[in-house]
Design brief:
The chain is an alpha+beta fold and 355 residues long. Among the domains are: 81 residues; 31 residues, no CATH class; 136 residues, Rieske [2Fe-2S] iron-sulphur domain (Rieske Iron-sulfur Protein). It contains eight helices and twelve strands. The longest helix has 31 residues. The termini are far apart. 16% of the residues are buried.
């Protein structure tokens, strides 16, 4: 017998009926089940007019969704895509009316459906409380054995294991059906082709100072300085400026030739002037922090650190590749120019990247 069984009646707590706000205690010493509180009826449960008003409100939300859907289709037909059709909308800025109208109408359509469903559930659907007793989730051993027995019998009767031709062709068909979805991805946009592997830099292209817009002479780059450059044929007024600068941005450093550890990297520069991609090879952030004593550059996003004196190899952080280097020289007037493209694809790695 347990110690509780040996307790005398005078030691058992008396049942409390809630006097003074205390909990209800059963004679056996355990708290009694307080049960559910009294159900409070909503206004729509006892007032038919309120119920009909709530019904109209729900219907209004659903009708608003239908109107927004029609507006979505109309917007797709009326407005034309393209940068020439952009308009200024405060405080968003310049946006295309097609994208703006499609986004607004689709958002209103989905929101109205959700709002109508929530209002319906909160005002008209039943909200009475019900008790559902817990029960074991696991099936009994007899039920599990019966399930396994039925499965084995079904597999035997189907001939799945014996008829290999049917089994193998069925597996092949089920495996190939999802491949049809890959074809649909072709309609998501033009193929990248070699855009991920190439940039706008070509042999003979001059380097232009990103701040002044003037060609950069080798004598302008001082030891210990960091200069940002871009192709001479690129201008901030170009329609594709943002797309090109995301890959063509360049940083120039100059160091004493004796400080350059990687001789291959030194051969790609000119008289100690080295040109590296400004785009971090982790997630593509622009690099701008330079420590001239160590020749290290730091990406401000995730602190990837590259040693420019050693071929811009990664010495710290999550970046997986060194910064690509641009081979440079000078023209007849002393201006720095590209002699070739980058030594590797610019930016983060991708699945088909080859160094």
């Amino acid at each position: 017998m347990t110690s509780q069984d040996n307790m005398s009646e005078e030691h058992l707590p008396e049942a409390s009926h809630g006097h003074g706000g205390g909990p209800v205690v059963a004679p056996d010493g355990y708290f009694a089940d307080p049960g559910l509180p009294p159900h409070e009826h909503r206004r729509t449960d006892i007032d038919e007019k309120a119920a009909r008003r709530a019904e109209r409100q729900v219907a209004m939300w659903f009708m608003l969704s239908m109107v927004a859907t029609v507006a979505f289709i109309a917007s797709y037909v009326i407005f034309k895509p393209g940068p020439t059709h952009h308009v200024y909308i405060w405080p968003i800025g310049n946006v295309g009316p097609l994208n703006f109208s499609l986004g607004v109408t689709l958002g209103v359509s989905l929101f109205a459906i959700g709002a109508g469903a929530v209002h319906w559930a909160r005002t008209l659907m039943s909200d009475e409380e019900h008790i559902s007793e817990r029960h074991p989730v696991e099936s009994s051993p007899e039920v599990r054995e019966q399930v396994f027995s039925d499965f084995r019998q079904g597999a035997k009767e189907s001939g799945f294991g014996r008829r290999k031709l049917i089994r193998n062709t069925m597996i092949g068909a089920m495996a190939m059906v999802p491949l049809s979805a890959v074809v649909l991805f072709r309609d998501l946009g033009p193929l990248p082709e070699d855009k991920l592997s190439t940039t706008g830099w070509k042999a003979g292209m001059l380097l232009k100072n990103m701040n002044t817009g003037e060609p950069i002479q080798a004598s302008d780059v001082q030891v210990g300085s960091l200069t940002f450059a871009m192709p001479a044929d690129l201008s901030e007024t170009d329609d594709d400026f943002q797309e090109r600068i995301a890959k063509d941005a360049l940083m120039l450093v100059r160091m004493q030739p004796s400080d350059i550890k990687d001789q291959k990297s030194a051969s790609l520069g000119y008289d100690g002037v080295l040109a590296f991609s400004k785009i971090c090879t982790h997630v593509g952030c622009p690099i701008s922090l330079y420590e001239q004593q160590t020749h290290h550059v730091l990406c401000p996003c995730h602190q990837s650190t590259f040693d420019l004196s050693d071929g811009a190899r990664v010495i710290f952080g999550p970046a997986g590749h060194p910064l690509p280097q641009l081979q440079i020289g000078i023209d007849t007037t002393g201006n720095l120019e590209a002699l070739n493209g980058f030594t590797a694809p610019v930016g983060p790695g991708f699945w088909e990247r080859s160094e």
